[in-house]
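User: We ran a pulldown and think these components assemble together. Before we commit to crystallization trials, I'd like a predicted model of the whole complex to look at. Sequences follow.
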Amino acid sequence: MLVLNRNFFLSLIASTAVFSASAAVADPTLSIMSFGGAYQSAQRKAVFDAFTAKTGDKVVEQEYGGEIAKIKAMVDSGNTTLDVIDVDAPTLQQGCDEGIFETLDWSKIGSQSEWLPGTSSECGVGTVVYATVLAYDAAKTKDGPTKITDLFDTQKFPGKRGLWKNPATNLEFALMADGVAPADVYKVLETPAGVDRAFKKLDTIKKDIVWWEAGAQAPQVLASGEVAMTTAWNGRIFNANKEGRQFKIVWDHEILDSDLWVIPKGAKHVDASLAFIKFAVEPQTLADMTKFIPYGPVRTTAAAFVQPDIATSLPTSPQNMTGAITLNNAFWGDKGDEIRKRFTTWLAQ
Amino acid sequence: MTLALPHAGTAPSVKRAVRRADRPARRAAFLLSLPLLAFLAIAFVVPIAALFTTAVDNPETRSVLPDTLRALAAEPSAAVPGEPVFAELAHDLARAGKARTAALLGKRLNYEIPGMRSIVMAGSRLAAASSQGPWRQKFCDSDPAWGDPALWAAIRRNGARLTPYYMLTAVDLQQTPSGGLAPVAPEQRIFLDILGRTLLVAATVTLLTLFLGYPVAYALTLAPPLLGAIMMLCILLPLWTSLLVRTTAWVVLLQSNGIINDLLIGMGLISKRLQLIFTRFGTVAAMTHIQLPFTILPIASVMRTIPVAQLRAARSLGAPPMSAFWRIYVPQTLPGVMAGCLITFILSLGYYITPALVGGPTDQMVSNFISVYINRDLNWGLASALGVVLLAVTLLIYGLFLRIVGADKLRLG
Amino acid sequence: MNAPHTLPAPPKPGSPEAIADATSFVRFERVRKSYDGIHFVVEDLNLAVRKGEFLTMLGPSGSGKTTSLMMLGGFEEPTFGHIFLGDEPVERLAPEKRNIGFVFQSYALFPHMTVAENVAFPLRYRGIKGTAAADKVAKALGMVHLGHLAARKPCQMSGGQQQRVALARALVFDPTLVLMDEPLGALDKQLREHMQVEIKQLQRMLGITMVYVTHDQSEALTMSDRIAVFNDGRVQQLAAPEMLYEQPANSFVAGFIGENNLMPATVDATEGGIATLTMGDGSRLQAPNPAGVAVGAKARLAIRPERFFIQVGDARGPLNILRGPITDMFYLGDHVRLSVAVGGDKPVVARIPVSQRRPFARGETVTLGCAVTDCRLLEG
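Assistant: Here's a predicted model for the assembly, 1142 residues in total across the polymer chains.
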């Protein structure tokens, strides 16, 4: 008899994971969970505080590391204590498919057509776009790389390269550097030959790669001189520069991905939560966010509200979008596990 | 109850009477330990039982496609079933789409056939959109995969309540269509390698902590009280800082422009900076540092129980200092050595943050994959199966260990 | 004021002159030991051990006896002075090169080895292997009546048995010298007395030289050929048990060995080795003066309790007479123990055999007699 199924696990985790969240009791108080750090602090300044000032509804903040297991555990336990959660795109897709998130009434938010392609769904409302980009330290390298092909050109740019220890983004960069048109990247990757081609391209610089795993490591290896250039999340580079670094982003063939607002299944204050999301994705609110962190607004109508000097450092600015693609989370949902295993064996070869 | 006096001179009956007289005390002792037993049951036995069941539990296909499976059973020999099965499939998928359970099935089948997630989701949308057959035609037109015997074999296979899939995958095996076992494709063979490297790193770290820690433990026992207290503080101090902080400290030490390289270059020992970080060396060095106290403490506490007279006796009997140390002192520290090494070895099996931050490309450990499968992929079956394999290997090593050195040789002080 | 010496002082016991002995086998010469460079645990130790003798170092704890033994065993180095084993100075020699058997207070058996392996341990370093070793082990274990327990581990044995194993291990390699550091301290009284006899018999049978450390004087008296009484880092007296008892060299020895009445006295005159004394209460007594205490000097009169008798009628021969009321009394089967207030600061203790007289009454005045030759005058 399988009396001990995964629900048992889930409720075990749930009882600990969201224990603190149950402190939020007063009715107009919204419990909101995001990724913490500089990102959440930008949200606090641009969104949470402004929302409370405008509506009087209080916001209680939670932080997490993006673990969908935590959300699933809470929902499965039947006691959803969070109202709104900021999730990344793979989490949105998985949670939406599996019914962990509520279906949203878009009429209470706005016209879905104003969102960049792939940054909205029946469960989630896109909030920012961030990019995986190539970056280098201008303090150490005067004539740095300018194109994604330079990542693979160890003749012209000797030295180690930092790459995320994950096949996602790397296979895409490899194919684009190998001449595949941005629009065709996933069409090529769908085929076994395409995956082979991407790995073959990575082979050419394999011995020069320093693999990083945590997002904070990318600026760290760049700052310490461990690598000549590295791929990184653009927000991390921005933050390092705020601390005095002179890192430069190579705005060529960036890979975009988005964060989205969702309401977990069984949330207690759906109307207030929808009101919050509507406020959080107002063009002006999104534009305010960019003052604190260089993540692009996902709503096309917000572009007009962004200060011009800030606009140049956003991944969504037209001049930064050369050859840009959006990470295909459906592809990685289908093939991710298989390709990750191959990636692991490839690393060990 | 009357207490019969035992017949004098018959030892067994005396023993029995004594045991009977002790019974209330034993019962009280047992009652006192009940809270702990209950705690152990909840915190230890139940989760491990859950781990084992999760590793073989297979509810997705049965719960999402109950009618399809029933119809399939009526066509036991069909590689690709006929219209009745497809009609039930449409019915099941439409219902699953409404209940948002189609993704569960898609994810489950996707483990065995990459791409099935999308196929099932599309199938569910198709079933919801049309009200009428012919379903076989419609499904196969929308995606030829529905006509693939491999897909239907997977569905049939997963109609079972239990599945060997996770356990087999955790050891790089798969079921062949004929029901036999075969290794998975070479580029998918990762878990045995990873298990091997996890064991290797754990063993290396254990030996290093022993070589570095044993003399320290010995010095600790010989040191006068004040110096001993200071040494003990230095040994324990790293335990008061978080794992992440200690690992980050190693990043600073090991990186190419870091302190160790600066020192070596400054002393003129090397001319080209060494790659220390992002290597196996980095992993082992950082883990050894973190694990040292766990090895030292049991050894030191056993050493403290060995009287000075032991070594003196050996010397007086004719043993030179080194011989006395090896023949008399070292064997008596073995219980502590065994305990310390076992603790370090088992703890080392669970590392993944440290290898991720200072390790090389081949330093991903089993626990790293367990964490990814639990937190990101929600593939708890495979995570549990990997946990079961790790647990089994650990128990095996522990068993061998006890077999070789004897359970009485394990002592913490 | 110092009185002039009327007699040449005899050599002090333990001085180098006193130990210049042709038969000496182990010699401590002006050995001093300090751990901190300020306090000396052993002060000027001069001591000779004769070949084949059983010598006990006796003294209270902290008197330096164990440190002396450890220096002889090679586990401590003298700060000054020399130790000779035969004619060879050994104070810098490693313990394993001294060929000395050592029995420790805690036995120090090796817990991971069987009894036989323990006993065979010293043989491996002497190149004795195979059947030769097995024979020696069997013989040594037979000697201590443990041949049947050779395969046991030490932890499976009683304290007494472990002690015997330690003994066998210290004897098996025919050492030139066996040292024992309070080896019977952990045993109960009966077993201890039994082992005392057994160790003594073994020592006599094998003719080995033994140096034994204890703080138990009855043990020392039972076993020793000679006893070195230690106090404050010095040997107070080195003599045979009887000598120590009958002719203690000083007040410490007199008080430490057996029971003694030590009464303060002043020397009035000394003639023919017999001194006339004035006691605290003004009474006058006589005593032999072998230490040559000068006239006018403060001294102590030592009288053993069992040397008193109840004096009836007139004194015959040279007797000392003490009178006083009984303040306390205990009946002890073979004798009665009396406390008699004879006028000093403390009552004297007398042991009167029950065959001589009983009963006594508390408060009764008794006359205690004691032959002058049973008294002894000591420097005070």
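Residues 189-206 of chain C form the longest helix (18 residues). That may be worth checking against your pulldown data before setting up trials.

User: Thanks, that helps.
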